[in-house]
Amino acid sequence: MRPDGPTMAAPEESLRRRKTGYSHPEPESPPVPGRDPAGSPAHLHAGTFWLTRIVLLKALAFVYFVAFLVAFHQNKQLIGDRGLLPCRVFLKNFQQYFQDKTSWEVFSYMPTILWLTDWSDTNSTLDSLALLGLGISSFVLITGCANMLLMAALWGLYMSLVNVGHVWYSFGWESQLLETGFLGIFLCPLWTLSRLPQHTPTSRIVLWGFRWLIFRIMLGAGLIKIRGDRCWRDLTCMDFHYEAILIVSGNLSFLNWLTMVPSLACFDDATLGFLFPSGPGSLKDRVLQMQREIRGPRPKPRFGSVVRRAANVSLGILLAWLSVPVVLNLLSSRQVMNTHFNSLHIVNTYGAFGSITKERTEVILQGTASPNTSAPDTVWEDYEFKCKPGDPSRRPCLISPYHYRLDWLMWFAAFQTYEHNDWILHLAGKLLASDAEALSLLAHNPFASRPPPRRATAQTRVCSRHRRWSATRRKEASITQPGRTRGLARMRTACPAGGSAESTTGTSSAVLGAGTPPRASGGCGRGSEPTFLLSAWRS
């Protein structure tokens, strides 16, 4: 039998193909997403910033979330209807000062939504602004997508709070957040809510705006030190910095977190890709597909893209124009730090710790229920703050990025007189009245389950590791708040000769014509001399 059937012919045909090196082409398998043609895992190419935008938006939204959370928890107590410095009074005084100006001129001097609201219930307005900011920032933080309208809303809401926040919002990081947030508006498309808006690539002008911001922050912080305290040039400031400044307490609010945001603009998708999961349909896979499309023929520009490009160029021109006074300030030997040159806080100057204090001065609030403060058995009890140093036996707190605004202002008050900090008299009056809103800002009220104190005082305690330092005292004019509190003197304290060589705490008080000063726990050693800040009592 001849093997000419199809079954026997197949091996012969296969053998013939192997001998001649010929074979039929195999059907080509489709490319696997997330892999290159060779089958190995694909890598993102450098030079695009799709993922960078997502990271930037999430980081900025996180800082916004913390800032609005702080506002929701503390605004009523600080600038609310019965706050320490009500914003309603601030707005009325501002309006009266500019009474010969038009409404638009007043708004341009201090842009805030509160001009358009009812001032009879500012607590509700402040809560509404904070809650709206919390909602929008939460959405951006979770989804990683935003449009210009949402980012502009966050910026406008927070600027409205900063401009009526008085001294409570006078920190440099408030303006820094507003400038960072303003740049964040132009990261996004106008309407589209997508993490990867295909027709809206990240603007290089906006990225350079972020880089210009972080450059100014770093340069300004360095120059202010070189031109400021001599100890920076002598390389001795760090001998005191961690003892006298707030680093170890974690009280720098969201400043460090916020400063990292513009630095993210220095990294492209290839660098930040490790932050995102891989796999078919993932963000990295979609970005890789978009990178391949970019290398192909470019489609005709859409009208929206042309408008957006014109807006970005206009933004670059605006930033360059507003940077002129900032650059002049950086070049000046009289450099100022943490200052804004326009009411919108768009381009500002920054810096930190131009001078270093060699001692740590803390204001300590105390109260007594004794009707006779001159009695030797009078007991004075301390009010404790949530994070401000007070009791030396208490462990320092770490609350960054949260911000206790009253705690920070108490630190500044120790370097000034009460005339510069009239809110501290309001605080003393609220302690005498056991005001629930004011007491919610504190960690410990020694009169929580008892009648309010009959008298409250504010002392300073100085912490230093030095054995000797001079003591000075300066009297100030006494002031009276009828029926509520009376402020007396401002003090600076120091331990006399013979104090401990270790880090110690000195306490002091001196009441002008008001009986025996309160006795303080701790001390700078034998013979510590009393000085005093203010005293208040109930009529």
Helical content band = 40-55%
Number of strands: 11
How many separate helices?
Answer: 17
In terms of structural class, how would the helical and strand content be classed?
alpha+beta
Index terms:
alpha+beta; 42% helix; two-stranded antiparallel ribbon; 539 residues; five-stranded antiparallel β-sheet; globular; disordered N terminus
Q: Can you walk through the features of this model?
A:
With 539 residues, the chain is of the alpha+beta class. The protein is 42% helix and 8% strand. It contains 17 helices and eleven strands. The chain has helices at 6-20, 50-79, 87-97, 103-109, 122-143, 148-164, 172-185, 204-227, 230-233, 238-244, 255-263, 269-272, 283-295, 303-331, 405-413, 423-432, 436-439; strands at 339-340, 348-349, 360-368, 381-382, 384-385, 442-444, 455-464, 479-481, 485-487, 504-508, 534-537. Strands 3, 4, 7, 10 and 11 form a five-stranded antiparallel beta sheet that branches. Strands 1-2 form a two-stranded antiparallel sheet. It has a two-stranded antiparallel sheet with strand order 5-6. Residues 1-29, 36-40 and 466-533 have low confidence and may be disordered.
Short summary:
The chain is of the alpha+beta class and 539 residues long.
